[in-house]
Specification:
This protein folds into two domains: about 5-130, Dimeric alpha+beta barrel (Alpha-Beta Plaits, 2-Layer Sandwich), CATH 3.30.70.1090; about 145-185, no CATH class. The model has no long low-confidence stretch (mean pLDDT about 90). It is about 45% helix and about 15% strand. It is an alpha+beta fold.
């Protein structure tokens, strides 16, 4: 069983990791009167992620991301988990999605610097880390599987299902060497 690493390693910024996966938990104050605009901007940000090509998500190593407005619309939690190193995770995601995409939601936070759109990667990482705290606990059900491995497993399962749905496919898989594959497919 893999245990979580609770010390700062640089891999996850100030966050902790479990197996291959690191977490970021960052808290920001929402500018008064900006809650609705922030919620809309976060929605646009997540739509970009939903429409992002798989190759970009693999490059970032992005496993999940969420924005949570709390304290009666006055605070924001940005939480994400990823498998790459901290610096390339932030740099690649900002460079691919665009700094303006990040600014769209960060501009509604009191901590957002006025020169945000001029920030270079290092300054942006420092800004993000200003709101980052390590999680008190962090658990992943499958901590040692990369996003590429998970997606490959999904494709393999789809291919096996396709073989099984093809007339004669199940008979073709009756070879003794394929017995473990058929047993796994039965689940």
């Amino acid at each position: 069983m893999t245990t979580a690493t609770f010390e700062y390693t640089g891999k996850s910024g100030k966050g902790i990791r479990h197996g291959l996966i690191s977490e970021v938990s960052a808290f920001f104050h929402i500018k008064p009167g900006h809650t609705e605009e922030l919620v809309a901007a976060c929605g646009r940000f997540h739509q970009r992620l939903l429409g992002a090509p798989e190759k970009y998500l693999l490059m970032f190593g992005l496993h999940d991301m969420r924005h949570v407005v709390f304290d009666v619309g006055t605070r924001l939690l940005w939480a994400t988990s990823f498998e790459t190193e901290w610096k390339p995770y932030i740099d690649d995601s900002v460079n691919t999605l665009g700094l303006k995409t990040w600014y769209d939601w960060f501009q509604h936070c009191e901590e957002c610097p006025s020169d945000f759109l001029e920030l270079k990667n290092e300054a942006l990482r420092i800004f993000i880390q200003s709101g980052q705290v390590p999680a008190t606990g962090f658990f992943r059900t499958i901590p040692d599987q990369s996003l590429a491995q998970v997606l490959k497993g999904k494709r393999l399962r789809q291919a096996l299902d396709q073989v099984l749905e093809t007339p004669g496919g199940a008979d073709a898989l009756q070879q003794p060497a394929l017995k473990p594959l058929l047993e796994e497919a039965a689940d």
